[in-house]
Amino acid sequence: MADRDEGEGPEISGEQKKEIAKWLLTNAPAGEIQYVAKDVRSVLMDDVAYEAAAAVAFPIYNKAHLLSLAMPDRSGDVIISKFGEIDSESFLDPRTAQVAIVDHVKQICTKVRPATDEELPCSYIEEFRAPLDAELCKYVDETYSKGTCAVYCTKGKDVEGPGAVFEFTVAISATRQSPQNFCNGSWRSIWIVEFKDDLQVVELKGKLQVGAHYFEEGNVQLDSTNECKDSTMVQSPDDSAISIANIIRHHETEYMASLEGSYFNLPDTTFKDLRRKLPVTRTLFPWHSTSQFSLTREISKELGIGK
Amino acid sequence: MEAALDLMRRMPPRQAETALSALLSLLPHHADNLLSQIDQPLQALFDAESGKEFVLCEYNRDADSYRSPWSNKYHPPLEDGPLPSDDLRKLEIEANDIFSVYRDQYYEGGVSSVYMWKDDSDCIAACFVIKKDGSKSAHGRRGYLQEGAWDAIHVIEVRSEVDGTAHYCLTSTVMLSMTTESKSSGTFSLSGSIRRQMSLDLPLEDGHVCNMGKMIEEMEGKLRNSLDQVYFGKTREMICTLRPPQDGMLARPLPQR
């Protein structure tokens, strides 16, 4: 084997180190950023660059992964998402009408404060939001082994009465970490629920994302996403909440079934296009009689029919 | 080094190349060590003289050129690139021919190459590589895969040929990724890499190519099986833990724990 040229390239700058660290941190699989951070710190050997990278990467990661953090007053979990972001460290929890102050790098919620009126939707909107939140909580509790959800008003939070357009964003997040079994995973769904009160329709757009990582003596990751659309009629707040929750339940159940279907097709169809379990001959390769191949080759050469 | 290897175990396998180049620029002193412990996705090149593609890897590289196993020439041309001895080259030609047939029977397409050299202690060493693009636009016979790549690297060292037997040490890596896409189920993508080793003493009378081939066939079968049963299976179990399926929803039962 040839020797690799000992490329003692020029020392890379702190800025480059920071960019690399940021890339590694934001690409951490669900639930693994703390482990990645420990590794990054030790390969970087530059605490200044590491701290700078962590300060940027952790908030991006936490929001993208819909990280769920326990609030210190035991009032529940707050989801870290761009929909509830008030400033870089403050995130609204619409259910408890509180604002959670978080430490992104430590991934903890340090304190909470009551949300101000400006941060909350007006009472007309809340009349729709609260029952939807309650329905979805029920659904998430029944369905996910450890899930959290939140319903944010992302448009028209000051709409005072019928006839206008407003929008909710539903975030559902379930994660499971099992580092002792070398396995982690996450389910994230984001639903945009648009009330077009003037047209009497509610339009839903969902983005579902599932990831799983198994890494005992190897590294295998599943990454799956799906997008779907649906709509329903605007009804009373309570009835709207029930039909919206049913639509979400229906699509997520279908998606789960399609994941199962993909796994089912894997061994005998999908994977076969990469490599078969057995040769086309359905018997192990005849290594012992390979001299015949060379012979065939010689003959074809002599006859001038070699490829 | 330990932290670097742990990172490679966590970064998305699809991004392995980027992750490795990131580590190389952070740890230039460990370049050799990193490159010997972390396999990179394979590339193929067309050898115009023989009209065939060959696979590029560390074992046919000298400077920036790669030796084709078909024409025995470096691409791009290299004046004094090392070549195997006549005897070894004969064995290499035989191995390439047979391995092509093997590859076609298991992969129904793809590109394979075998490279042989003598290591520092004058023992024969060989590298068998297979690159398969199983996407429906390439060699995916059944057309299920939007994207699908299988790269296998098998490095075999032959030791102590005494009493008519030789000791073979095989290190194999498989890197794969596959994505299916449909309107109703979205994208479903699995990617990963695993590496395993095995050693065997085998009679020399069967010949090196036969012995090496049998080991590789057994190993590839094991790797494929454990990816399918264990690794993919574990990711499926994880999803079923996140969202326990309701009765009757499972297409097949989960393995008992």
From TrEMBL, chain A:
GO cellular component: cortical cytoskeleton; F-actin capping protein complex
GO molecular function (one): actin filament binding
Keyword Cytoplasm applies: no
Keyword Phosphoprotein: no
GO biological process terms on file: actin cytoskeleton organization; barbed-end actin filament capping
Endpoints of the signal sequence: none
Alphabetized UniProt keyword annotations: Actin capping, Actin-binding
Protein task: F-actin-capping proteins bind in a Ca(2+)-independent manner to the fast growing ends of actin filaments (barbed end) thereby blocking the exchange of subunits at these ends. Unlike other capping proteins (such as gelsolin and severin), these proteins do not sever actin filaments.
Family statement: Belongs to the F-actin-capping protein alpha subunit family.
Record note on quaternary structure: Heterodimer of an alpha and a beta subunit.
Protein's name in the database: F-actin-capping protein subunit alpha
Source organism (scientific name): Spirodela intermedia (Intermediate duckweed)
From TrEMBL, chain B:
InterPro entries reported for this sequence: CapZ_alpha/beta (IPR037282), CapZ_alpha/beta_2 (IPR042276), CAPZB (IPR001698), CAPZB_N (IPR043175), F-actin_capping_bsu_CS (IPR019771)
Subcellular localization: Cytoplasm, Cytoskeleton
Gene3D superfamilies assigned to the protein according to its UniProt record, in alphabetical order: 1.20.58.570, F-actin capping protein, beta subunit
Stretches assigned to coiled coil: none
One of the record's GO molecular function terms: actin filament binding
A Pfam family assignment: F_actin_cap_B
GO cellular component, one term: cytoplasm
The keyword Acetylation is assigned to this record: yes
One example of a Gene Ontology biological process annotation: actin cytoskeleton organization
Keywords annotated in UniProt: Acetylation, Actin capping, Actin-binding, Cytoplasm, Cytoskeleton
Highest taxon in the source lineage: Eukaryota
Assembly with partners or alone: Heterodimer of an alpha and a beta subunit.
Function: F-actin-capping proteins bind in a Ca(2+)-independent manner to the fast growing ends of actin filaments (barbed end) thereby blocking the exchange of subunits at these ends. Unlike other capping proteins (such as gelsolin and severin), these proteins do not sever actin filaments.
Family the UniProt entry places it in: Belongs to the F-actin-capping protein beta subunit family.
Official protein name in the record: F-actin-capping protein subunit beta
Source organism: Spirodela intermedia
Lineage of origin: Eukaryota, Viridiplantae, Streptophyta, Embryophyta, Tracheophyta
